[in-house]
Amino acid sequence: MKSLYITSVSTFSGKTALSLGLGLRMQAAGMKVSYLKPVSTQPFTVGGRVLDEDADFVRRTLGLDTPPWELSPVIITNDLLAEVLRGDSDRDLVGEVKAAVGAAGEDQDVLLLEGGASMREGYSVGLNTLSLVEELDVPVLSVVNFQGEECLAGMCVLDDVLSAKRRLGDRLMGVVINGVPREDMDYIKNEAVPFLEKHD
Hints:
The longest helix has 14 residues, at 15-28. The chain has helices at 15-28, 53-62, 78-86, 93-104, 129-136, 155-168, 185-198; strands at 2-8, 33-36, 39-40, 43-46, 49-52, 74-75, 110-114, 140-145, 172-178. The protein is an alpha/beta fold. The protein has 7 helices and 9 strands; from the N terminus they run E-H-E-E-E-E-H-E-H-H-E-H-E-H-E-H. The strands form 3 sheets. Strands 2-7-1-8-9 form a 5-stranded parallel sheet, with helices on both faces. A two-stranded parallel sheet has the order 3-6. Strands 4-5 form a two-stranded antiparallel ribbon.
């Protein structure tokens, strides 16, 4: 089984949409695909069970049989955060993630792992992106959202990609630049991409 961890430098960059797109494409190619969001900070209660709403949406769209509450093994709630801060939690959060990854990947060709809201999320509870990809020993695909209007000449997209490379090192297998306006495509193709390629 192959695994791929999908993350981003900033929030709302399109990780869930990319996970869905890759999952559907792989299923169309005849692969058995599983999905997991190891850590969630968006608790959503349905029928008395806490789950991640985005993860449930991916489950339904990909037609997965996994119960929705199993798709995100660690959901950070105010109570859990308080326990961690006080040192009262007896949960092995990393162990729970590893066990869930092992179970989700059984008899599958590919396991898609959707990271948290950003690469800074999870440090306080020991479940940040950098430590998780090391623990799980998985390659990473980073989504970077184009923010042309907010940045000088598209500088943010370059900085975000270089930041991801600096943080993830050799684990970063590629970057997806998302949400590029049509009028900025020439800049991305002819200036940004060649510049980034020069920086590996």
